[in-house]
Amino acid sequence: QDKFTLLRDTRTDGSFLVHHFLSFYLRAGCKVCFVALLQSFSHYSIVAQKLGVSLTAAKERGQLVFLEGLKSCLDLLFGEEEEQSGQPSPLQFISESTSNLKALFDFVRTSLTPTDSDAWKGPVLLVDDLSVLLSLGATPVAVLDFVHYCRVAVCSQLKGNVVVLVHSNEDSEDEDNELVVNSLCHHSDLILWVEGLATGFCKDVHGQIKIIRRVSLELTAEQDHVQVYQYKIQDKNVTFFARGLSAAVL
């Protein structure tokens, strides 16, 4: 509870971690608000089925609140967005001159605030991926403000968890994105940093993951705990192993 987890990928695709956390929290009986800005609902649903979870069933029983960012953007741009119960679209900032993510935050808070009929274990906010908000025109300050308010509402007030994916490239000239990534790294309780292999493509090793536990956030004299593994993505799971100890080498 009360943890902010940052999923960061560089030179590779870290979306397998999003699918893991989505299926993990749904199986654990948590209430999940999934702000999906990168793919369609059917994409996440197909992958979740392979992992033994039905997103459609989770939506019907009220456990999963799914914001399909691609569809909402198109509806807003072409004027087909229907206001539900008098509320503006969560991505309303796209059609406004100001980069204000308050509508998106209100959507998250409303979705995860428990009602009397809820029997879920705890609220979870999952965002895939935060970098898209910058591409849609939001400023870095607005994105960081949104994350801050979500942390206060979900982690501190509702005692839940926040999991956010961001893309990063250390050689990138996108200063706004790197500003957001570096700021989030300083505030995260746990960082899962997925990187492509520096040596290039390998069919038996798809990349490496750096697990950084931010012990320094607890104001102790200890250094952050860092573990590094390599991994191989398979059809229904992911295999992790120490560097240089893949099946191909052994």
UniProtKB/TrEMBL annotation:
GO cellular component labels: cytoplasm; elongator holoenzyme complex; nucleus
Pathway where it operates: tRNA modification; 5-methoxycarbonylmethyl-2-thiouridine-tRNA biosynthesis
Protein known as: Elongator complex protein 6
Principal subcellular localization: cytoplasm
Origin species: Opisthocomus hoazin
A Pfam family that the UniProt record links to this protein: ELP6
Family membership noted in the UniProt record: Belongs to the ELP6 family.
Record's keyword terms, sorted: Cytoplasm, Nucleus, tRNA processing
